[in-house]
Specification:
The complex is a heterodimer of chains A (about 350) and B (about 300). Chain A is α/β, with parallel strands linked by helices and about 350 residues long. Chain A is built from 11 helices and 12 strands. Residues about 1-10 of chain A have low confidence and may be disordered. The chains are: A alpha/beta (about 350), B mainly alpha (about 300).
Chain lengths: ~350, ~300
């Protein structure tokens, strides 16, 4: 990979991506669906941030929100900022945004089966991205596409470049998808559940490929997943989301050694362990409140074993409890409690 | 690609046999006595009887069918019962104008329908969308003879003074082109509506798919996203629809040619049926069936061009 030309007048210690109080709402027939409701986090250059949470917690909408790929309507940016290299990209023109998408910001999607266009070869789809970002020469673009396919370890890239997506396996398609997202040397790669649709051995290969590529390209990664195992293996920092909000932020080792939010505790308890005999997997009782419901207090209170009247009355702010650690819970820091 | 074409050609053989059988039965079932037609209304009964024997009409039906199949496979479609000309010659003269009319109709109506449907899909729910859908519903609902008569009345007589009787010569001549306008317009009117509606729903369907989101995430302009990644994929069902509409179009050609006195197969078959000219009608039916098979062959080839997943 080529060395990146650093953008002028950018403090190298400043975060690459800074999301501040982002709100993405959807207007539906049942009411306003607050899919993302005041989410804040930041990503350092070259670091990997994991966003975890169960289905419907707003993590995918957050990732699409960063790329400004939310369809409006029904979606609406109801507030907040998304600062990429110091600029609020929610305020730039659509034309400028297109320059960033697929250029300095790449994205990988969950479904490699459907995320590539079935009627074009993978080479054509990669070349199209190169040409949209200023590579005028078709031959050079094709050469670059083959290089990228080689980089993501697709076997015999010179011939596979002319294959259609249906001629590749799921893992190969995801490799092609990663090649597509990285072809213009992005500073930031957003990966929305990149391994969820793949079987376990292929998952491991793709994750190791992503770690490898991060070393080589220096791109920061935002990894959206519901798999805590993936987070533990891949990420530097973790953001835990619940019902459209961030409930906990921590460096990965600290999150696993001492989770501070009852929801994080519950998630971890739900992961099956090899060293303990269990007949049933742990679950978190209850279910996520309906998204259009405006609750006065903490959104997790109805399912929380530690909830008090105060929790049900007032929403807990996300507050800092240590370097790089914050939690949105009135009861934090919690001691060792068997959740 | 070649193997797809060969496959399709082989598959059309049973269809063709079915058509031949149907053509034979149809003429057995229609009222009217061929021998009487040939001999003329004032011929004596014994003359008619002699003719019947000469034409083989006194034979058992299976024998007649065998003789008919034999003639079909040797390319002998017989002679017209009215004009006594070779049926193949009559058909050969009529086929050019019909193909010409079909092409002239499709060349404007399919692109227009696709453009209208895409526009409606992109501007879904807007005034533009509703207007386009209203026009296409009208196009689907109006019978072709009515559209044809409106075209004659307004474009032909009142407003533009365009010719509406017969063919004016080859298409590349000025007169030929002017004569083509109204028939092509009327016949194409039945195709625009269905194509527009199918394109609209197909584009809407495709724009929801994941790969369109990928295209946007690549930083492509909305125009490329819609044309290269939306419309291109959406054309596959539209091509199917056009194949299905081909039969309708051939039927429409019969009406259109009759209205505009267009010297094609459609007018030939109407004339033949009205005058009980069984041999010509039989030949024309065969030509229509071949046309239908050919259109569907083209559709299948287009399919594999549009969708790499169906290529072998």
């Amino acid at each position: 990979m080529t060395a990146k030309a650093s953008s002028p007048a950018v403090d190298p210690d400043a975060p690459l991506l800074e999301v501040k109080d982002l709100k993405v709402h959807f207007h539906t027939e049942t009411g306003v669906f607050r899919a993302v409701d005041g989410v804040s986090f930041s990503v350092r250059r070259g670091a990997t941030l994991g966003i975890v949470g169960e289905s419907g917690c707003g993590k995918s909408v957050t990732s699409l929100g960063i790329m400004r790929l939310i369809a409006q309507p029904p979606g609406r940016y109801a507030g907040g900022e998304v600062k990429f290299e110091g600029r609020d990209i929610l305020k730039i023109s659509e034309r400028e945004m297109r320059g960033l998408r697929g250029g300095r910001m790449g994205m990988i999607f969950q479904e490699p089966m459907t995320s590539l266009n079935p009627v074009y070869t993978i080479g054509d789809q990669i070349i199209e991205s190169l040409r949209a970002h200023g590579v005028a020469d078709r031959k050079a673009a094709r050469k670059r596409a083959i290089e990228m396919l080689d980089l993501v370890k697709l076997p015999s890239p010179e011939t596979r470049v002319d294959d259609f997506p249906h001629q590749l396996s799921g893992g190969q398609r995801q490799r092609a998808m990663i090649a597509l997202a990285l072809v213009n040397d992005p500073e930031l790669l957003i990966a929305d559940e990149p391994t969820t649709a793949l079987d376990v051995t292929v998952q491991a290969q793709i994750l190791s490929l992503m770690r490898d590529l991060r070393e080589r390209t220096g791109a920061a990664i935002v990894l959206i997943t519901h798999d805590l195992g993936v987070v533990a293996e891949t990420c530097d920092d973790v953001v835990v989301m619940y019902a459209g909000q961030v409930v906990e932020k921590a460096p990965v080792a600290e999150l696993f050694s001492g989770p501070q939010h009852p929801y994080t505790l519950g998630l971890m308890a739900a992961v099956p362990r090899l060293d303990a005999q269990t007949d049933r997997l742990e679950t978190i009782p209850g279910s996520v409140p309906p998204p259009y419901l405006q609750l006065p207090g903490c959104r997790f209170a109805s399912r929380c074993p530690l909830a008090t009247d105060h929790c049900r009355a007032a929403p807990p702010p996300l507050r800092e409890i240590g370097p790089g650690r914050s939690v949105a819970c009135w009861r934090a820091p919690i001691e060792e409690i068997a959740a | 690609m070649i193997s797809t074409i060969i496959d399709r050609l082989l598959l059309s053989i049973p269809v063709l046999l079915g058509v031949l059988l149907f053509g034979f039965l149809l003429l057995q079932l229609v009222p009217g006595d061929p021998a009487r037609v040939v001999a003329g209304p004032s011929a004596a009964p014994d003359v008619v009887e002699a003719l019947r024997v000469q034409m083989g009409l006194d034979q058992p039906i299976l024998v007649q069918f065998w003789a008919y199949m034999e003639r079909m496979f040797t390319g002998d479609l017989g002679r017209s019962m009215i004009s006594n000309k070779e049926v193949t010659a009559e058909l050969a003269a009529a086929i050019g104008p019909t193909v010409e009319l079909m092409l002239a109709c499709m060349i404007w109506s399919i692109p227009l329908g696709i453009a209208m449907g895409t526009m409606a899909a992109v501007k879904r729910g807007s005034i533009v969308d509703r207007a386009i859908m209203a026009i296409s519903v009208a196009g689907v609902s109006l019978p072709i003879f009515f559209v044809g008569l409106l075209a004659v009345q307004y474009l032909g007589v009142l407003w533009l003074n365009l010719p509406f009787i017969g063919r004016g010569g080859p298409l590349w001549s000025y007169d030929g082109l002017r004569h083509m306008i109204l028939p092509a317009l009327s016949l194409g009117a039945i195709l625009v509506g269905p194509v527009a509606r199918m394109t609209r729903s197909s584009v809407l369907e495709v724009l929801k798919l994941d790969h369109v989101r990928t295209a946007r995430a690549k930083g492509l302009s909305e125009r490329s996203v819609i044309l290269r990644h939306g419309l291109r994929n959406a054309l596959i069902p539209v091509v199917t629809l056009i194949g299905l509409q081909a039969g309708y179009l051939l039927g429409g050609a019969v009406v259109t040619e009759t209205i505009f006195s267009w010297p094609g197969i459609g007018r030939l078959v109407v004339g033949a049926i009205l005058s009980s000219d069984f041999t010509v009608a039989q030949g024309a039916i065969l030509v229509f069936a071949l046309g239908f098979i050919a259109i569907n062959l083209i559709v299948d080839v287009l399919y594999s061009l549009l969708d790499p997943r169906v290529r072998k």
